[in-house]
Amino acid sequence: MRRSRKVKILATIGPASSSVEMIEKLFTAGADVFRINMSHTDHPLMRTLVQRIRSVEQAAGRPIGILADLQGPKLRVGKFAAGKVPLTLGQTFTLDDDPTPGDEKRVRLPHPEILQSVKVGHRLLIDDGKLALRAVRTDGRSIECVVEAGTAISDKKGVSLPDTDLPVGALTEKDRADLDAVTAEGVDWIALSFVQRPEDLAEARKLVRGRALLMAKIEKPQAVSRLAEIIELSDALMVARGDLGVEMPLENVPGIQKQITRAARRAGKPVVVATQMLESMITAPVPTRAEVSDVSIAVFEGADAIMLSAESAAGNYPVEAVAMMNRIAVQVERDPTYAGIINAQRTEPEATGADAISLAARQIAETLKLSAIVTYTASGATGLRAARERPRVPVIALSPVLQTARRLSLLWGTHCVVTEDAQDLDDMVERACRIAENEGFGQKGDRIIITAGVPLRTPGSTNMIRIAYL
């Protein structure tokens, strides 16, 4: 099944879309990768969902990627004697370590690391920013705050700390257990929540031990400020705009989205734009005009993938949401301004032979108007380089490793095919031509360009370009 667009669609599975039939419908409608949100999924359900996705993959004959999204630390206030209390602007309200139920003056904050880390002047945002507090006094066991916005607080509401660098890692005990479980099931990508610093990724990488690729979710100001270091240690990035919009001024989020997308493209790392892309389609069969524009901006920016969350997981129109996102992406990529915008953001390749080969392959393919770029890749590195060039012609990634093909299904413009390793150079060319024709990328007499490493089966040795006739 060949897609008629280059950007990929990442769809979250949930109560509205967890059956084999629904997963198949979502795939047919345009989903390329499926996300399992471990915040709402226990291990038996996760295993069932992975099995169902793999059964759809087998029936479709196309590699399908699976992303497991770890929950990360959940910072919440305690409970109130009345369940909910009113607050007024300018009043003082205290967060402390007293387990007594809260009232209109105070409530327990069962996180000593917050009580010890918040400084005078730091903001504390409660319930996705609906309540804004600012610390005026701290002593390590309590934080006295003044109410700057909001009128009420209730049980177990989440706490965001945009000004505070917490001395806790991104992985909780639940995350570690989830990580072991999802890697045992062979998921392809693991999304890491609550990333603040590069060390968070280093810890996760030790635990993963190469069994999956790591995607850093950029959802905190601390991560934005150390973006270059985080990109270096991650395999991909996710622009988690919902949490960014809570912890940072909303008007800053579009610029940060562009900054992250372009930085990831320069580094040759996939980037996903996520959160509230077609939010109204949770309850409506069509999106708003603003949402259509929002999706189109991510496509114009050259993001590798665009993501649906509750729209496909719990909404009333999951298949329609995927189909709508597919239609928007296809139309944007046909727009006469699209190629110019994508080309303008292209960066210079790294000073390596493999990067130079990928650049040359794109230039030759576009100059000669070839049908496709075919790249042999066992590890996926050559596929990443080809996609980084954002060529106008399709990229066909051939790999003898099923896991590699699944991982590359997230990659911009890349059509992944699992095939046996070529025996020699002639076999490699013949196989590339046959697959390009069979997959609908050309017909007899058309030309393709092939990149590979010679001698064959030598990882990281991309050093050959060959033009061939179908």
Structural commentary:
- The chain is α/β, with parallel strands linked by helices.
- It has three domains: 8-72 and 170-335, TIM Barrel, CATH 3.20.20.60; 84-160, PK beta-barrel domain-like (M1 Pyruvate Kinase, Domain 3, Beta Barrel), CATH 2.40.33.10; 353-469, Pyruvate Kinase, Chain: A, domain 1 (3-Layer(aba) Sandwich).
- Helix content is 37%, strand content 22%.
- It has helices at residues 20-29, 43-60, 112-117, 173-184, 198-208, 221-225, 227-233, 241-247, 253-267, 289-300, 310-313, 318-334, 338-344, 353-367, 381-388, 402-408, 425-438, and strands at residues 8-13, 33-37, 65-69, 84-86, 92-96, 106-108, 123-126, 131-138, 142-149, 152-154, 159-160, 189-192, 213-218, 236-240, 271-274, 305-308, 373-376, 395-399, 414-418, 447-453, 462-469.
- It has an eight-stranded parallel β-barrel, surrounded by nine helices.
- The radius of gyration is 24 Å and the shape is elongated.
- The two termini are 20 Å apart.
- The mean pLDDT is 93.
